[in-house]
Amino acid sequence: MTLLVVGNVDARSVVDQINKTFGELKGKRETPAPVPTLSPLRAEAVSIMTDAVRQDRLSIMWDTPWQPIRESAALLRYWRADLAREALFWHVQQALSASNSKDIGLGFDCRVLYLRAQCAINIESPNDKLNSNLNLVARELAKVRDKGLPEERVQCVSGGKRNWSCRNCLPPMHELIPIF
């Protein structure tokens, strides 16, 4: 059996605790091989896949159980959730535009992985402004949590989903991002 202890710990208390817990066991004891570690990264955007990344991305993720749509009630739930996500996205996007935040990219992304609906709010921002931009998004989400979305925004998104005729609330068609 190999026990690996990771983090900042007091070596004496760990040894004492191990001896107390496993002291009565018989057999040969060995010290494990050192575990390789990475050196701290510089405070700049890093990507393994491409060199084109120029700013950091913070993703706030959550997931919920997902079942295939087999009945009209499930389709209705999916449709409501899709409308809510889209209304929330455009509300936060317009609030950020109103605050004249030029160096923030916002995206909502949802996908199904292994029967889990995994969603994320992606914030792209330069590293030095990431905290302030995260605070902007968090404040707007807190406003929505406390006061809800304005009724006209929800009506506009639901009307736009049906006929794409609501031009003052929704962006042009080429800017729409698929949510699910």
Automatic annotation (TrEMBL):
InterPro entries, per the entry: Peptidase_M16_C
Domain Peptidase M16 C-terminal per the UniProt entry, residue ranges: 1-154
Biological process according to GO: proteolysis
Origin: domain of life: Bacteria
GO molecular function: peptidase activity
Swiss-Prot/TrEMBL keywords: Hydrolase, Protease
Protein name: Putative protease
Organism of provenance: Escherichia coli
